[in-house]
Every structure is written in structure tokens, then in C-alpha cells.
Amino acid sequence: MVRRFFLFVSVLFGFFLLTACGGSTNNPATLTPTFGTPSSTHDGFTVQITNYDTTYTYSGTATSSGTVTVSGTGLVTVTGLATNTNSTATITTTKTGAINGSASVTATSLLPRVAYVANTDDDTVSVIATVNNTVTATIPVGRLPIGLVISPDGSKVYVSNQLDNTVSVIATATNTVTATIPVGSSPAGLVISPDGSKLYVSNFADNTVSVIATTTNTSSATISVGSLPSRLAISPDGSKLYVSNLADNTVSVITTTTNTSSAPISVGNSPDAIAVTPDGSKVYVSNSGDHTVSAIDTATNTVTTIQVGISPIGLVISPDGSKVYVSNSSDNTVSVIATATNTVTATIPVGSLPSILAISPDGSKVYVSNSGDKTVAVITTTTNTISATIPVGSNPYAIAISP
Description:
Number of strands: 36
CATH class of the largest domain: Mainly Beta
Oligomer: single chain
Largest sheet: 5 strands, antiparallel
């Protein structure tokens, strides 16, 4: 009996000892979050937890007055930051029986959203704060700046200087020119690859396109195209480059992996502005010589012709691909085309000699450079009305908005 009691006590003691050491309770392990690459926004950033586990509870804090939320899929969202502000988010994991785990990730919110406008007669670029529609800076560039594009990350603005045969590179953090790139004769249109690695420049008098490596600001190739190449557009995946050839009434299609052209597509008279829909299925081209817009089906290269106002110059597509806005320079209007039907659904009066257009990333505003009255008109797209008119430099032409 004594032996049995002793054996019972020994077993019980061993059980408690095992429990204290964690050997048989299967306590959950500590989970330390790991993160993907942060993506900055204007009031914070987002980042994915790559080892997200739904059996744990997540909470977070952020420096610089940021607010943290964690979605049911492990997406961390930091909001409430001022623009261009660095913040560290700390994410903590909890689970009953487990020791809390934590890890931190740091990112910087984007610079304030701005519009850049090339003033061709002033040899300058105006910088507009879109939050209050005021000019905050004026940047000297080369002679006759006529084309302008912003890098995908918003860190650089490229400006083609037609009389200098150069491209100016502006650092947006300081609004200063940091480099000048020699290109072909009379550079005009500019477009940048979706990954930001290549800049394409149409050389109007050379009938070529220069390919610039943005890491070195040097030319890596020159591509022959049609006569008087004007504007450029690139497919969402970066595989195709489209070039409007003003004197040929054609669009060149270039395969970017080989820098070779396929058969050109015939469009209207004097094609100028060109843009690709977000899904890559259509290319729209403004034809200033016959007051039309050509809609190209990229799968078949067939063309639909849309009548618009007089002398259409500029063209931009909404972020959702549902609308095309076209500036009609000789009747001071903007036509709105529904892409589903390729019909004009509205005509908006703007300033004198409207030229190039840009649209905000959320599609709520269209910015129109009015070359004849030294202004930029701001259209509210929900009402198709002018909500602001901004004085800029002399003969404003190209315009673009930061991401």
C-alpha cells in the first residue's frame, strides 16, 4: 500500500514537473511578424504581413501620430501621417498561452500631390499644389519645353527641350534640375516604362525614338519610326510602345524587348496625343487635322473613328478606363468619350487654346493647359464643370500629375 501511494505521488510530481516545463501542454509558439515591401500613400503606407496567421490577434502602433489597422488578410495600413513623413509601425501578435511577438516596419509617406506644367515660351515648369490649386515653384529648364512625364515613384520629372535637343531631369524632392540628357533632334513626346527603368523620347525632326536608361541617364538605343513622331504611349505591361506619326497619319507599334516595329496602323489626319486604356485593349489617338479620335483595338489593330471638336490636341483616359477626355484647341472645349460605346457624352467649355490634359489618380479631376490664356483649368469629373482656373507661365503645354 505504501509502495502504491509512493508510486502515485511520484507520477503526480512528474506530471506537474512536465507541465511546468511545457512538455505536454503544447503551448502555442511566439509569432514574430515578417513584412513585405511597404507601399507609400499620401497619408501613410501599407505593407503585407507575409507570415500572417489567422489564429493570432494583431494590434499595432505607429510613430508620427499614425494610426494602424490590420485587415483580416494581414494587410497593415498606416494612416494619419503628414505628407513626406517617416513613421515606424510596430505590430504585436497575441494568442492565449503564447508569449507576445512583435516586429516593426518603417516607411515614408509620399510627397504632396502636385501637377507639373511646361511653359513653352518661358522655358520653365510650374509646380501646382493640387490641394489648393496654387503655384508653389517655378523651375527653369531648357529651351521650348514641350513634353513632360513623371516617374512611377514620383521622384523625377523628365522634360523635353525641343530647341536644345535635350531632356531635363528634375528631382521632385527639391524641384531642381539634376541632369540634362542629350537626345535626338527636336524632342517632343515622352513616356516612361511602368517599372521606371526606361524613358522613351520621340525626336520630331529625326523620325526616331530615343531609349534612355533612367539609372544612368544615357541612351541605350535609337528606334526608327514614321515621319514627324509626336507623342508616345506604353501598354500597362510595358511590352508595347505606341508612337503617333504626325506626317504619316499612322501609329508605330514597337516591341520594347527588341526595340523593333511592326506594321504601322493608319489613323486620322495629323495624329498627335495618344493613350492606352488601363487594360491595354484600346489605344486612343487625337487627329488634329480632321477633328476626330481614332480608337484602335489592340487585339486586331482595327480602328473606330469618333468625331469630336475642332483640332483635338490633347487626350487622357480615366484611371478606370471608362472615359476619354479630349482637348479641342480651336473651339476651346473638352469632349468626353464613353469608351464602352466610343461616343461623345459631354462637351465642357474651358480656356483659350486647350492643349495637353492630365487626370488625377482617383479620376476626380482633369487638368487642362490653356495655351492661349496662360492658365490651367481644373475640371471636376462628377459634374463636368470647371472648379478652378490657375494662372501659370506663358504658353503652357505639357502637364502631368504626381502619383
